[in-house]
Write a structure and sequence with these properties.
Macrolide_Exporter_MacB, alpha+beta, 13 helices
Length: 372
């Protein structure tokens, strides 16, 4: 249990850093609603806010002194088709030309959109690696046409493989098109997200305040009015991750503690039985000059070895389970977790084996020799 709990925690930490890189470095997102949820999320308050507009991109770009790139995107799930093949639940995004800078995306083959293609709404598409493999296998997808939303889009690029976001969502099952082409198919009346990238981490905090001021001017808000927009940062996921991990440790810790107590009591009972069955042996050892600490050490070592063997069995079970768990979520067994598990097993053996070992060490030698 301890090993699996730490495997999930380690896997989440490693996957978080990788997933945050997928969202772009030093980027804030201007949206209608803040990220989050839970019982305190005031969805009724955010629902009636004004939508983001595509025109905000140019206004922010012209007004900001700290932003290095500004882009907009709108997204939804859809179905893609190529000849007799189809893929459902594809993440389709309509984006502006600088989106690839703010999102930190790299092209494996082909090219990105030009400003002219975005402005004119040319029906071209860039596919994620998984989609390219699904539709074209070993063929070259560049220049081929796929269908989405009843429209034909020409493939002009394939993204480098990214993997899963937080171990859940496959980021390579995505299709990216110019935002005006997206609007022709699905409309742009809602769901626009504006991404603002800064040159380094030091600029992000100052830039966040700058963007807030620019957005308030764009939205023509009075000094006494609250923001009717949200500025979201990827770090918000870190707080949610820590909250999840805290819950995981509380539940897992309670179950682990309970299992250790039950296992420890089992070890203590086995050792009591062992001491009783070997009472005459203990008496003979005392008669030939064995000291109490030697007998105490013997039984403590036996208890510790018993717990370590149990730990080996637990590790043998945890490793394949963690591999299976990693297929549906994230889990990674670190060598430090293995050492920690064995140290914990040794402590359980030491604590719960002490009373039987103490009883053996302080047994009356005469009574022990008479024991049958």
């Amino acid at each position: 249990m301890v090993t699996l709990m730490n495997a999930v925690s380690n896997g989440m930490d490693a996957e978080f850093d990788k997933s945050m890189a997928m969202m772009g470095q030093n980027v804030v997102y201007v949206e209608k609603q803040p990220w989050g949820g839970g019982p305190n999320y005031e969805w009724w308050k955010y629902r009636n806010r004004r939508e983001m507009k595509l025109s905000y991109v140019d206004q922010i770009r012209q007004s900001s002194e700290l932003a290095s790139a500004v882009s907009a995107a709108a997204a939804r799930g859809t179905t893609l088709r190529y000849e007799d093949k189809s893929s459902e639940g594809v993440f389709m995004a309509g984006v502006t030309a600088r989106y690839f800078d703010t999102a930190g995306l790299d092209i494996e083959s082909g090219r990105v959109f030009t400003e002219e293609e975005v402005r004119r709404g040319v029906k071209v598409v860039i596919l994620g690696a998984t989609l390219a493999e699904t539709f074209f296998e070993q063929e070259n997808p560049l220049g081929e046409h796929i269908r989405m939303g009843g429209q034909r889009f020409r493939v002009i690029g394939v993204l480098k493989k990214q993997g899963k976001f937080l171990g859940l969502s496959d980021m390579d099952r995505r299709a990216i098109v110019p935002i005006m082409a997206y609007g022709q198919v699905f409309g742009l009346r809602s769901g626009i997200q504006i991404a603002v990238k800064f040159s380094d981490k030091l600029s992000v905090e100052e830039g966040e305040y700058e963007i807030e001021g620019i957005m308030r001017r764009i939205r023509q808000l009075e000094a006494t009015e609250e923001n009717d927009f949200a500025i979201n940062k990827p770090e918000a996921f870190k707080a949610q991750l820590e909250s999840f991990k805290t819950g995981l440790y509380l539940v897992g810790g309670a179950l682990t503690f309970l299992s250790l107590i039950i296992g420890g009591i089992g070890v203590m009972n086995i050792m009591f039985v062992s001491v009783r069955e070997r009472t005459k042996e203990i008496g003979i050892r005392q008669a030939v000059g064995a000291k109490r600490w030697e007998i105490l050490s013997q039984f403590l070592i036996e208890a510790i070895v018993m717990c370590l063997l149990g730990g080996l069995v637990g590790l043998a079970l945890s490793y394949p389970i963690s591999i299976l768990l990693n297929q549906i979520f994230v889990a990674s067994i670190d060598i430090s977790v293995v050492f920690g598990a064995f140290i914990l097993c040794s402590l359980v053996g030491l604590i719960f084996g002490f009373i039987p070992a103490y009883k053996a060490a302080h047994a009356d030698p005469i009574e022990s020799l008479r024991y049958e």
